[in-house]
Amino acid sequence: MDILNNLGLGFGVAFSPLNLLVAAIGAFLGTIVGVLPGLGPINGVAMLVPIAFAMNLPPETALILLAAVYVGAEYGGRITSILINVPGEAASVMTTLDGYPLARQGLASVALSLSAWASFMGSTVAILGIAAFAPLVANWALAFGPAEYFVLMVFAFCALSSLLGDKPVKGALAAAIGLAIATIGVDANSGVYRYTFDLPELADGIDFVVVVIGLFAVAEMLQMLENLLTGQKVEVPPSERKLFNLKELRFTWWTTIRSSLMGFGVGVLPGAGASVASAVAYANEKRLHEGKDPDAKFGKGDLRGLAAPEAANNSAATGSFIPMLTLGVPGSGTTAVMMGALTLYNITPGPVLFDAQPALVWGLIASLFIANVMLLLMNVPMVRVFASMLSIPGWLLVPGILAVSFIGVYALSSSTFDLLLMVGIGLIGYLLRKMGMPMAPMVLGVVLGNLMEQNLRRALSITNGELQILWSSPVSVVLWSLAALVLVVPPLLRKRHARRQKAT
After folding, report:
1. Contact (Cβ atoms closer than 8 angstroms) between residue 367 and residue 17
2. Residue 102 has pLDDT above 60, yes or no
3. What distance in Å separates the CA atoms of residue 421 and residue 181, rounded to the nearest whole number?
4. Whose CA is closest to 277, among 287, 289, 288, 265?
5. Is residue 481's pLDDT more than 80?
6. Which long-range contacts (CB under 8 A, 24 or more apart) does 378-383 make?
7. What is the extent of the structural domain holding 49?
8. For residues 97 and 341, what is the distance between their CA atoms, to the nearest angstrom?
9. Each residue of 17-36: b (16+ CB within 10 Å) or e?
């Protein structure tokens, strides 16, 4: 009954005219932020913080605005990922793997509408989880120390093995390149400069957005430019259907539910983020179906490969509010910005927030649900509008996307060096694509490399270098066991399946 009473209080706050208007505006702006390559939810939210404070918005209204932008950006990132193979934001990288092939098969509108539904389901599962299990899940997240986070990253890399497909050597090399990129910059523990080549601009490392935009936007545009100059044409036919059908909904239903729950679990862990959730969810679905399901075609346009990362990244993004609200620990970079916004109002997130500011907390939870419904109603009817991007001629599309990408990267730090670095990474990504190198393992290496190293260093510093801490807790033991199963079981199942086929 307490939950129902609290939700009643929350919806009373959320349904005020001002908060409804703010949620709608935030959802729309968030979608635009997600569509623009390089901008991302962190920058979108950060740009609105001073505006919300300057307008003297009440704290619950300001938080509703920022949360709606955050969730909207997770929706919007899928649009360019599907249509032109350029992730709108970091968590949409995995969406390109099957979203773009579906668009090239004439299913752009189907992919857009199905991904909107998966995003809606992911956010809905996470919102229900916040309302029902926030204190319980927060206590579970406290069990994750540096050692447990390191083992979680090991598990993610073991799950990466399913992304390597029929090119294990090239995939492993791509992941190693990603890890190498993650080591650039000043070592946070010793202060030593690593691989900076005496360039002060590399002291803080290479920003993830620069890497993603270079590998995807610039490299993809160079590929399109090559096709234009050589007369080759990558056909992306117009969509015949506007929406997915019931058969496709049933086909992806359990994938969506599984990935939503998995994304919520990852999102609750402070610092893990939506990018990790989408990668793990995609790898999990690929491992479950490939080799056993004759209809599985992950990487070539499988609807489950589209639904899994979209459900997971939205669920993780929404789930990251739990550690922020209950522990005072940011669950992601974007929620860290939101915590900063709350401090402007002299509000400190933490265990007492639910008792001290119930209207703010439950108003936020109710507004997340309302914004989620608004985003579904915005995105599904507009799939044909989004799909019309495919009719833009290449000679206009290439410079337009490059211009937006340059603006997004320059907005990060106002550095021309980042622009040159993005172009250099794009050229390298273009050459690697020509050699058949997969981009997803490289991006995952960049995402997880820094987290993995920092948590390993912290864990070892606690015990003066004793490795035993890495398997001393029940959580670590479970994660090590799962990592071993992920590596051993799929090859055994594939061999068993091959023997059965040979026998028949």
Report:
1. no
2. yes
3. 12
4. 265
5. yes
6. 378/27, 378/28, 378/31, 379/31, 379/75, 379/112, 379/113, 379/116, 379/119, 380/113, 380/116, 380/117, 380/243, 383/108, 383/109, 383/112, 383/113, 383/116, 383/239, 383/242, 383/243
7. 2-503
8. 35
9. eebbebbbebbbbbbebbbb
Q: Spell out the long-range contacts of 433-439 with Cβ–Cβ below 8 A and sequence spacing 24 or more.
A: 433/219, 433/223, 435/170, 436/167, 436/170, 437/170, 437/173, 437/174, 438/163, 438/164, 438/165, 438/167, 438/170, 438/171, 438/174, 439/93, 439/174, 439/215, 439/216, 439/219
31 within 8 A of 39, measured Cβ to Cβ:
no
Q: What is the mean pLDDT of the chain?
A: 79
CA-CA-CA-CA torsion sign (201, 451, 122, 42) = negative
pLDDT higher than threshold 70 for residue 231 = no
| Distance of alpha carbon 448 from alpha carbon 445, whole angstroms | 5
Count of structural domains within the chain:
1
Mind listing the pLDDT tens digit for each residue in 147-194? Answer: 887 887 787 677 666 555 556 778 778 888 888 888 888 877 777 888
Nearest by Cα to 444 from 131, 158, 218: 158
Q: Are 318 and 120 in contact (CB under 8 A)?
A: no
Environment class of 104 (CB within 10 Å of its CB; exposed 0-12, middle 13-18, buried 19+): middle
Locate the DSSP E strands across 455-495. Answer: none
Measured CA to CA, the distance from residue 404 to residue 159 in angstroms comes to 33
Q: Cα(482)–Cα(100) distance, rounded to whole angstroms? A: 31
pTM (two decimals): 0.69
CA 476 vs CA 145, 148, 161, 174, 466: distances in Å:
10, 5, 20, 27, 15
